[in-house]
Design goal:
The chain is α/β, with parallel strands linked by helices. The protein is built from 9 helices and 6 strands. The radius of gyration is 22 Å and the shape is globular.
């Protein structure tokens, strides 16, 4: 009897500890988002200062006014880019399917924190199905939604995952709503980020994709603030560097920003398996805020 009672008490304590842990993680995430918002307001990145406030000394723009900070070059493509693109296997991972690779998966996860070989085998432009509910597809949004500056923060992100994020945003965001994509490199030292990425941007990406490098690592909050200062669109979007946008991802969020410019919108997002890059369809953290 005493043993059974003790076992019941231990199980109860385990459940209580798990619930407390979940609450602590949620509190930590909310605190992080609060710090981002406070930082944006403190530095007036959102443009919330009153018009009667004293004018500040204008700072040098991080992005050229003619939007051609990084031109889209033509001509002979560098071998470095071709070698990277040759890693992709046609058809692998399409439709959000997982990819199997040989080797010790646990060792791969320990080295890269996700399955990099599987990621490299998947096209940076892989196609995902439209998984919206049929009723959601029937919703119509205003035609004059605010434009978005999508800010992607990263430090030593693997190139295939980063570019898959960038291309998904370019391909799944209506052009009139995508003002720019600002890549903020928080002092990476991987060759594929410091060398291959700039080349790829010059030869493969449109000029609205802009790269800003921090000379020293600022951390998540500091890097996001740098990206927000660089943004020139109506709304700013902080996006993870290892996610994939799908059809209709941005319109409902921008609509809520237009309806109430002080809104900060955090949607529910599907997950991607770190073991095989399968899209789980039913998590990425994204924050929207209005700049004006």
């Amino acid at each position: 009897m005493a043993s059974a009672l003790r076992l019941s008490l231990l199980r109860l304590r385990h459940r209580v500890n798990w619930r407390l842990m979940r609450l602590a993680l949620m509190a930590l995430y909310l605190a992080l988002m609060f710090l981002v918002v406070v930082g944006l307001i403190k530095h007036d990145v959102l443009g919330l200062a009153t018009k009667d406030a004293p004018a500040s000394v204008p700072q040098k723009r991080l992005i050229d006014p003619d939007r051609n900070a990084i031109p889209h070059l033509v001509g002979e493509v560098p071998r470095e880019i071709l070698d990277f693109e040759a890693l992709a296997v046609p058809g692998e991972g399409e439709g959000g399917k997982g990819v199997k690779v040989e080797g010790d998966i646990e060792a791969i996860l320990k080295k890269y924190a996700f399955n990099k070989p599987a990621s490299d085998r998947i096209s940076v432009k892989r196609k995902l199905p439209d998984v919206r509910h049929e009723e959601c597809k029937k919703i119509t949004y205003d035609k004059d939604l605010p434009s978005a500056s999508v800010i992607i923060i990263f430090n030593n992100e693997r190139l295939s995952a980063l570019l898959r994020t960038v291309w998904s945003v370019l391909l799944k965001t209506p052009e009139k709503y995508l003002h720019e994509v600002v890549l903020v490199d928080d002092a990476s030292n991987l060759t594929e980020i410091t060398s291959t990425l700039p080349l790829y941007m010059q030869y493969r990406l449109p000029s609205k994709v802009i790269l800003k490098r921090n000379p020293k690592q600022l951390g998540l909050i500091g890097a996001r603030l740098e990206g927000a200062r660089a943004a020139t669109g109506d709304a700013i979007v902080f996006l993870d560097s290892h996610c994939e946008a799908t059809e209709g991802w941005v319109e409902p969020l921008l609509q809520r920003i237009k309806d109430k410019p002080t809104n900060i919108v955090i949607p529910s997002i599907d997950g991607i398996s770190d073991h095989n890059l399968q899209v789980l369809f039913a998590f990425l953290f994204v924050v929207f805020a209005h700049k004006n």
